[in-house]
Amino acid sequence: MKWNHALQDFQHYLHLERGLSRNSISNYVLDVEKLIIFLESHEILETPINIDKNRIQQFIHDLAKNVNPRSQARVISGLKSFFNYLVFEDYRADNPMELIESPKVGRKLPDTLSEEEINKLIGAIDLSKPEGERNRAILETLYGCGLRVSELLDLKLSDLYFEEDFIKVTGKGDKQRFVPISEINKRYINIYRKEIRIHMAIKKGAEDVLFLNRRGNKLTRAMIFTIIKQLAQDIGLQKSISPHTFRHSFATHLLQNGADLRAIQQMLGHESITTTEVYMHVDRTHLAEVMNKYHPRKSGISN
Fold it and tell me: To bridge 127 with a disulfide, which of 39, 132, 222, 273 should be the other Cys (CB 3.0-4.6 Å)?
């Protein structure tokens, strides 16, 4: 079995059997391609079927020279999944990654913005341009609903249930969830829809897509990043931010204001509560407040 055939089969498996998103599949493929490039550059002819643990360790050692521990751990995880697939399909009897450990990486706490910083970013949008109303609606939705950038781009007019105060979001693995939407968020989306979008020449296939570029087609991830980076530069924000920063800020601010962690989990679309629990570490003062408010001995020892 050649590497390109194994990789192609792996892609089909991730899409059809595991139902992963295009971005997740792309990340897995990149992990395996790094190994393939290493083998080709060293003129090593081993195949996915006969490559062994020693050769993998040689690759990991070479990889460690060029990437940080977190990226290294990501590649090791991707390769473990790839070889597990080969074992699952009976191409191999063993997984050469089994005894290879990932480097220890500390838990990376998500970057967040304060409410004031979010207001400044949104306030810096130039509303005199048609795309200004769109950009305001985009930032309000990223922050107000805690969406991933892919979820925002896939949002459709038919996903808006404004009378019920919800939007339908399609997340990782095409899993759908309903997320509450605020009145202010609805207002800015409606301004964009009724004053800007309605006058656009929309490309075929994008008729139901909510946020469109100037050519009437679906926006790209890169465009959303560019919009946010430019606004950060305009207000002199000394933080490295991305669309995901608004999602992190959404969850953090909800937690700080007393929201239940399970409710935040559902709104973010996290499969496991442990993923959501990272927000408990962002602002430790919240933990102290919870203890002081709810612990039965908060008032001290009784006589």
Answer: 132
Task: Evaluate if pTM is beyond 0.85.
Answer: no
Catalytic residue flag (residue 270): yes
Q: Are residues 195 and 48 in the same domain?
A: no
Which residue out of 34, 247, 248, 253 is catalytically annotated?
A: 247
Q: Can you give the CATH number for the domain in which 32 is found?
A: 1.10.150.130
Q: Do residues 20 and 168 share a domain? A: no
Catalytic annotation, pick one of 172, 177, 218, 221: 172
**Among 15, 55, 270, 286, the one annotated catalytic:** 270
CA torsion angle 219 220 221 226 (round to 10): -80
Active site includes 279? yes
Q: Among residues 148, 186, 197, 253, which one is catalytic?
A: 148
Q: Is 148 a catalytic residue?
A: yes
Three-state secondary structure readout of 140-194: HHHHHHCCCHHHHHCCEHHHEEHHHCEEEEECHHHCEEEEECCHHHHHHHHHHHH
* Catalytic residue (choose from 13, 28, 192, 279): 279
- Report yes or no on 83 lying in a domain: yes
In a domain, 99, yes or no: no
221-279 pLDDT per residue, tens: 999 999 999 999 999 998 888 898 998 899 888 888 888 788 888 888 887 777 776 66
